[in-house]
Amino acid sequence: MYKPNKKMGKLIIENRSEIFRPSARTERTPASVTRDILKVIDTPGMISFAGGLPDDSLFPIEDLKNIFETSVSKKGSKLFQYSDTQGHSDLRAWIADRYYPGSSADEILLTSGSQQALDLLSRYFIEEDSPILLERPSYLGAIQVFSSYAPTFIGINYGEEGPDMEELKYVLTNSSEKPKFFYCIPDFQNPSSYSYSLEIRNSISKLLLENGVPILEDTAYRELYFKEELPISLCELGPEHTISIGTFSKTLAPGLRVGWIRAPKKILKDLIIQKQSMDLHSPTLNQELVYGFVSSSKYEEHLSLIRKTYQRKSEHTFNCFQNNFGDSLPLQISKGGLFYWLEFPQEINTDLLFQKCLEKGLAAVPGSSFFVGKPERNHLRWNFSNASEEETKLGVKRLFEVYKSIQK
Amino acid sequence: MYKPNKKMGKLIIENRSEIFRPSARTERTPASVTRDILKVIDTPGMISFAGGLPDDSLFPIEDLKNIFETSVSKKGSKLFQYSDTQGHSDLRAWIADRYYPGSSADEILLTSGSQQALDLLSRYFIEEDSPILLERPSYLGAIQVFSSYAPTFIGINYGEEGPDMEELKYVLTNSSEKPKFFYCIPDFQNPSSYSYSLEIRNSISKLLLENGVPILEDTAYRELYFKEELPISLCELGPEHTISIGTFSKTLAPGLRVGWIRAPKKILKDLIIQKQSMDLHSPTLNQELVYGFVSSSKYEEHLSLIRKTYQRKSEHTFNCFQNNFGDSLPLQISKGGLFYWLEFPQEINTDLLFQKCLEKGLAAVPGSSFFVGKPERNHLRWNFSNASEEETKLGVKRLFEVYKSIQK
């Protein structure tokens, strides 16, 4: 046992309230609702559709075990020593090759999940009060981290084909200060599940280029299509004015915390310096495990399996909603991603619905958390990838009961 | 192969200079010298004493392999799923128990190395122009990350027994604004290798408490004593006004990126929210590997081995310096840590010495990088833990030759 050289007693602190004086940043960083919900889901009997959790029975654990074994035997101590800030060069080359035709490993920076990519890009771009554009609704983890940098949020409504182009044009023409970037999730968005049509992709890339506003494209769900691939990415359309963010959290395993940024080389240089100051580098071993798996022939099989499984789960979820709610909940069957974005009648406040659901052992995320500015309060984000079919059946039934009870 | 739905050509960007408009933060984050040096050390023939790299032949790779095997078999997919922001609860309990008598797992937050801990605490505390206290010299990775938050640095000279208490008292009495914290490395400091005496520890803890200024104590090198343990930590002396930072990078393996913060519970709550916004959580698997090893009976043996090896290497390094430089370089034999802090005569500028060294295939870190305010320019930081004895012999000889050549 470790025994410190304890030669004097502890000092007693009398008034500590003034000792720790946090920055304004601390005050303005909201706790993320989903992370808070993750804490209650361990309550006995609770069924959760709250987190964006992949189905962990699909994690290729045996393969990862074999890769670990082989890699450690081959590369040994290198996997455990300090390494380069930019990250595993073979994995960067693989990412460039697969997702960014014409780009190279030099344009990729590996991060600790896509959340760190969002933080890093916030540091790079945002000054206090900088205007930034983002979709309404948008990913709550992005809203959370952006908030800590105190920008001025400008929300653009996101509909079934993409953002409202008229609104976007109006904002670009009439902002007194040029927005720092447009943050968007064009593929099976979290939370709405909407995607951009090809036409919108073309128009939006052109419009933002003309206005000198860079795009931050978050591609987290792009691989999770059920039948048809999505149209070309914004980054491929306009690689010089688009920064792309990606992650292996949804396609492989989130616990490994491996994500990336693709940016023009000139910008990437500065991003690497920021990353260096943030945590020196992300763990080498985790990048090696990801590389070992994605570069093997098993990755395509694995993606097919995930797509099929999530499609089946989404269809089952859809059927459960149809069976319980009938026409009272307008819902289209999902084409990809992880979520249903439930739209209740205007008079239903899902913040209240959510509280009632928790009491009945059911968790999902109230829509208000996904809006900058004045929130809409009649949505609920429902994850379909994690729960079992049995749990889904029971969960939707519980939701319908709660819905009925507050409707009265 | 992945084939995107490429239905239109790329947009051509004509004037991209105005598109990316980085924040002032980007401008003020300096690239870290050591990380830049890490890039040149792969040049053929280069011998490096620059990084704070542990001896990677000591990494307990076989044990980590076994732990991986056992843990994955036992815990399965949980190790690869999203998990709690605060981190592995058993590892937190182990850290509290070993290093913070009277504290519990609730007061520990796991981070991606201690660099992330420094970033997180910067976010928590620093506003633009906030005065912060730190030692002169201090750890350059801390200076780098603090700089990106634009504080006002107040340096306190660090001598062989600890910081200059008169200077510290003077600053505390005469600052117009109360400093946000005092950042210090009381144990085998990077770069100076100095430690605080027990007397200084007592006085400094008391003085800062009286002045209502919290302490950020960085304990990275605390376990690396060769014979005698260091006196009680500042955190144990004053747990309510001290935040402690630790890491497994020096005692186990830096590539795993596992570090921690110990803070009073009230503060920790807000730190967890910041961490959540930064990267959701650090990788579960890495924390499990660390826990598996440190909680086993092998950890004490391993620490003994590291201490003995580094002591031998430090003695060998010391002898090489004696044999080459004789009395022209004042040097005391090391008692712990990873570095010798070489002090040359005032007329030697180690920034120039460093450049000449690189030309001769030798890397170490010029002292100027470790100073806030006006730098001292006659030191060189020399790592002794990583190079082999043969390399050290050759390296010191090269240094002496370069030194002689610029002295003329």
From TrEMBL, chains A, B:
Residue limits of the Aminotransferase class I/classII large domain? 69-399
Q: Which GO terms describe its molecular function?
A: pyridoxal phosphate binding; transaminase activity
* One GO biological process term: alpha-amino acid metabolic process
Q: Where are the transmembrane segments?
A: none
Q: Which SUPFAM superfamilies match?
A: PLP-dependent transferases (SSF53383)
Q: Which family does it belong to?
A: Belongs to the class-I pyridoxal-phosphate-dependent aminotransferase family.
Question: What is the name attached to this protein's record?
Answer: PLP-dependent aminotransferase family protein
Q: Which organism is it from?
A: Leptospira koniambonensis
